[in-house]
Amino acid sequence: MCGIVGIIGRKDVAPLLIDGLRRLEYRGYDSAGIATLVNGSIDRRRAEGKIANLDARVREQPIDGTVGIGHTRWATHGRPNEANAHPHASARVAVVHNGIIENFQELKKELQDAGRAFESDTDTEVVVHLIHHHLDQGLPPVEAVQHSLKRLNGAFALGILIAGRHDLLIGARMGSPLAVGYGDGEMFLGSDALALAPLTQRIAYLDEGDMVVLTLEGATFYDADDQPVAREVRQTALSGALIGKGEHRHFMAKEIFEQPQVIGDTLNAMYNPAQGSITLPDLPFDLAAVPKVTIVACGTSYYAGLVAKYWIERLARVPVEIDVASEFRYRRPVLADGGLALFISQSGETADTLAALRHCKAEGQHTVAIVNSPESSMARESDAVLQTLAGPEIGVASTKAFTTQLTVLACFSIALARAKGAIDRKAEQALSGALAEVPGRAAEVLAHDERIRDIAQFVADARDVLYLGRGTSYAIALEGALKLKEISYIHAEGYAAGEMKHGPIALIDETVPVIVIAPDDEDELFEKTASNVQETVARGGKVVFFSDAHGVERMSETALYAIPMPTVNPFVAPILYAIPVQLLAYHTAVLKGTDVDQPRNLAKSVTVE
Ligand code: F6R
């Protein structure tokens, strides 16, 4: 959510800032801007919309300078127009900001009363004027920033430029991530290591409350009490090459088609084929003693957690509580003594999930983060990490992160069940063997791409779409509906199929496509779902049915479209059935002509509450 870059070097920084912003564009794309120091004075270029617009502006009006900051915005306060685009600046200070300054109204009033004039509707501009005010009072830049930071409430990562000081670039972090990159005679700031990958592989992260002062020679970190501190410099494995779309038109398509590979990579880190067993990385607590599991996440990651609730309770017979992070943290949840709290997040930076992790840690829970980014805040702050090996996910709608989360959670469920003695070796072999088949089966599912593209023609004309499923397929129905609404802007809802007659069936008529997720199973859920489908069809509903060959045959007369999925152990079905709903959303969005990879109003990494 909002991307920041900063560079202090020896050559013109504008092209490098724009390149860094391109890598961060997935974090927000409402507007963008850069500021540099030209002969000691702040110069800026800003543009509404995507980085391409900023790039065009800079080509028309080039900007030089060897120190600079850049920003790509996801609007919180103020419309996404040029006036509200970052960097915000006065004659003495320029600032880029990711996060929210919660007390900005009170500060703005105070600063306006002191005679300072504001140009934008943003919360960020108070930071500019606060620092300017302290500089005017005679404080040197570092102290002026330190004094200003003490006045801010909320979450922020900041990049700060001071007029007349081309030898200085300042960063600060409270709640939003910020990385420092070490170059050769040049230094960098970035929202994440991905932005800095082509510039350097040597990265240090600011801790909560840290400020950092960059010069050409290096970085000096200060903690929340303004004391100099050392922060570890690590080597990141990220490649500097700009991640491409390969033969695909969109990142989302590329990422959907990468799933057989990345599910396999993720599984290989935990699955021993010779033994037919699952081994988790070392955990600093005894799994066998865990009395309860609490799962917290947002959005798609939450739906992965919902599948895991079914898996864990069924296999390990351990109670699972699950909540979306924004609700969890404010409802004073009752946690079990010695309980395990699982946090699921692609980015590892989602503000609400991170806050929930900190809460659970403070309450003495064992904390495990399932993240795709091993250098993220959640990875660094949890007791243990189970990594999804999805690789960088650039499309804003999550796809391969979801199925790799499911893969990790499936392994975790088996390991917990074994540790608890709830399943025996034979069952472990059967379940992990079924998991090992998933990459190959996922490739078979992808072969239905063209058929699903045809179905998308029918869905693209709809105003409302319903997704139905039971058990773990209920979670996939919710995920399918989320995918469709976020990239095609068609209203969609996921329901537990059995809930239809308690209200939603009133929506059914011949204009509402009903997407049914119904793998064959051991619990008669298929039969129950099939009955719900008959009730829907009897009321004019047009059904798209995803099931295995047997289920498809059963529904061939009833469903408008039926797609035969591979016949698999029902345990792994949710991983495979996630794929057709991703494809359906993707093709519908393409037909509607939306911006598939960067849908309106969204951003990839939600670092504000
Ligand atoms: C939907 C989507 C979001 C994220 C959510 C959590 O396609 O991508 O719903 O799943 O914002 O993000 P992470 O997983 O980074 O915590």
TrEMBL record:
Cellular-component GO terms for this entry: cytosol
Gene3D superfamilies the UniProt entry points to: Glucose-6-phosphate isomerase like protein, domain 1 (3.40.50.10490), Glutamine Phosphoribosylpyrophosphate, subunit 1, domain 1 (3.60.20.10)
CDD domains: GFAT, SIS_GlmS_GlmD_1, SIS_GlmS_GlmD_2
Pfam families: GATase_6, SIS
GO molecular function, one term: carbohydrate derivative binding
Superkingdom of source: Bacteria
Every Glutamine amidotransferase type-2 domain range: 2-217
Keywords annotated in UniProt: Aminotransferase, Cytoplasm, Glutamine amidotransferase, Repeat, Transferase
Protein name: Glutamine--fructose-6-phosphate aminotransferase [isomerizing]
Organism: Caenispirillum bisanense
